[in-house]
UniProtKB/TrEMBL annotation:
GO-annotated molecular function: 3-deoxy-7-phosphoheptulonate synthase activity
Required cofactor names: Mn(2+); Co(2+); Cd(2+)
Keywords: Amino-acid biosynthesis, Aromatic amino acid biosynthesis, Cadmium, Cobalt, Manganese, Transferase
Pfam families reported for this sequence: DAHP_synth_2
Amino acids binding phosphoenolpyruvate: R145, E303, R304, K326, R357
Assigned protein family: Belongs to the class-II DAHP synthase family.
UniProt xrefs under Gene3D superfamilies: Aldolase class I
InterPro entries xrefs: Aldolase_TIM, DAHP_synth_2
EC nos: 2.5.1.54
Transcription in keyword set: no
Pathway(s) where this gene product acts: Metabolic intermediate biosynthesis; chorismate biosynthesis; chorismate from D-erythrose 4-phosphate and phosphoenolpyruvate: step 1/7
Protein name: Phospho-2-dehydro-3-deoxyheptonate aldolase
Residues noted as binding Mn(2+) in the record, renumbered to the chain: C106, H389, E430, D460
């Protein structure tokens, strides 16, 4: 590929108007902190020559270069061996030997990046994971949307209600409804890095301390089942889990030791939207030469930026992290196969997770052809279901989702995989550990009139703790059914 030649071309689109050379991308040595291009790895900057959707219009290009230089010099947030171990875990999912649980905020904010919020989110995710582990009788790979989910793609550049530029995540601009707050500031990417580092520090402590031991997480689940009307429906399964744990303890398994490694494995993820941020935190491992985006373990490409000839696909195809790609109802089977070929030409199991987000009305008719096509080509993908983004609705100007729609899309996803004999590999959920009132329904029967109570999201409506746990219990039942069907087929 004529990398050098391409970089001198005029940008077709994207955040940098003018020629690359005018920005000093191809001349200044990296060490000065002025360059945006790594002279040793020009292929990692090829994306700059392609149209990049959903990038902020940074008003100050010098500030962008400054922020980029600062980020490039900072230590990575995660390390390459962790990234590789997540790929291995996801390979287990692709083989049908594990289940993926990915969840967290739609948009993290700096203000909500507090110890309690982080604790409660991690707690909810771990509680869901224990229930799902029981349902699936396989390990659950836990990946949080946390410590970096600070950039948002938006439908409109201008917010209708205020006439202001849309909020694009705390890494870009502020949520406050003033023109000054909504102006993109590249140094917010540096703040996002520091907030991510602080969150990760706490998450790592939670993961290794007694906080996340199996018996502790089960105690929380017992409290949910005992103390809430929504939880009481799941008493039977909670009792079964209790029995299973008692059996393990009787066998001498220490439930307070969270794993052989002495800690629960919790990985981080976010949408790889801001390519300058992702590029600045992409590093080449000295010992292996492996290129990793060390801003998180897993990075996903959104529904709005997954164009095959776009900058996101170009850049993220070059990092070796596990990559997710959102697949909406309009994606054709050929297009999805092309995405698989592009991201994972070597068919590495665990490298690619296809996250369908079709909507409850479409999943049953749109997903089968996609799964069949990718499967027939022998791609070892993880099939995950995001039952949130295809089910957003407007109720009196408030964005919400109904629990029944969320559940029905998951049900449809399981039905499709059952019919095709493929593994319904995972769930991708927007959730919080707080008792918010952003999604309708669930055992608490949140109604339209309740939405105003605690509607706190900076972007999309999230399941609250109770709704998230209910979903886990219901999906665990679906997984149990899948398991007994498999066992039956085995004996026939
Ligand atoms: O999280 C996903 C998208 O950023 C979000 O759904 C876009 O929302 P919008 O349609 O309000 O811009
Ligand atoms: C933007 C998101 O989803 P999608 O790309 O599927 O719309 C998201 O996951 O927050
Ligand atoms: Mn969202």
């Amino acid at each position: 590929m004529a990398a050098g030649g391409n970089r001198r071309e005029t940008f077709a689109a994207g955040p940098y108007p003018g020629r690359v050379s005018e920005l000093g991308l191809d001349s200044a040595p990296v060490a000065t902190g002025q360059a945006l291009t790594d002279q040793a790895h020009p292929e990692l900057d090829l994306w700059r020559t392609l149209p990049a959707k959903q990038q902020p219009n940074w008003p100050d290009q010098a500030a962008l270069r400054g922020a980029y230089a600062e980020l490039s010099a900072l230590p990575p947030l995660v390390i390459a061996p962790e990234v590789r171990s997540l790929t291995e875990r996801l390979a287990d999912v692709a083989r049908g030997e594990a289940f993926l649980l990915q969840g967290g905020d739609c948009a993290e904010t700096f203000a909500a990046n507090t110890a309690n919020n982080i604790r409660d989110k991690v707690k909810t995710l771990l509680q869901m994971a224990v229930v799902l582990t029981y349902g699936a009788s396989t390990p659950v790979v836990k990946v949080a949307r946390i410590a970096g989910q600070y950039a948002k793609p938006r439908s409109a550049d201008i917010e209708t209600s205020t006439g202001l530029p849309s909020y694009r995540g705390d890494a870009v601009n502020g949520l406050e409804a003033t023109l000054a707050a909504r102006l993109p500031d590249p140094y917010r990417m540096v703040s996002a890095y520091h907030h991510s580092a602080a969150a990760l520090n706490l998450i790592r402590a939670f993961a290794t301390g007694g906080f996340s031991s199996l018996s502790q997480v089960h105690e929380w689940n017992k409290a949910f089942v005992r103390d809430s009307a929504a939880g009481r429906r799941y008493e039977l399964m909670a009792t079964d889990i209790e029995r299973a744990l008692a059996f393990m303890a009787a066998c001498g398994i220490d439930l307070d030791r969270t794993s052989e490694l002495g800690g629960v494995e919790l990985y981080t993820s976010h949408e790889g939207l801001l390519l300058d941020y992702e590029r600045a935190l992409t590093r080449v491992e000295e010992s292996t030469g492996q290129v990793c985006d060390l801003s998180a373990h897993m990075i996903w490409i959104g529904e709005r930026t997954r164009d095959l000839d776009g900058a996101h696909m170009e850049f993220l195809s070059r990092v070796t992290n596990p990559i997710g790609c959102k697949i909406g109802p309009k994606a054709s089977p050929d297009e999805v196969l092309a995405i698989a070929e592009r991201i994972n030409p070597e068919h590495i199991p665990g490298r690619l997770t296809l996250i369908s987000r079709m909507g409850t009305g479409r999943v049953r008719d749109a997903l089968p052809a996609v799964v069949e096509k990718v499967n027939a080509a022998g791609h070892p993908v993880v099939w995950a279901c995001d039952p949130m983004h295809g089910n957003t609705r407007d109720v009196g100007g408030v964005k919400t989702r109904h629990f029944d729609d969320v559940l029905d899309e998951v049900l449809g996803f399981f039905e499709v995989h059952k019919d095709l004999g493929t593994h319904p590999g995972g769930l991708h959920i927007e959730l919080t550990g707080e008792d918010v009132t952003e999604c309708l329904g669930g055992g608490q029967e949140i109604g339209e009139a309740d939405l105003g109570g605690r509607y706190e999201t900076a972007c999309d409506p999230r399941l609250n703790t109770s709704q998230a746990l209910e979903l886990a219990f219901l999906v665990a039942e679906m997984l149990q059914a899948t398991r007994s069907r498999r066992a039956q087929a085995h004996t026939e």
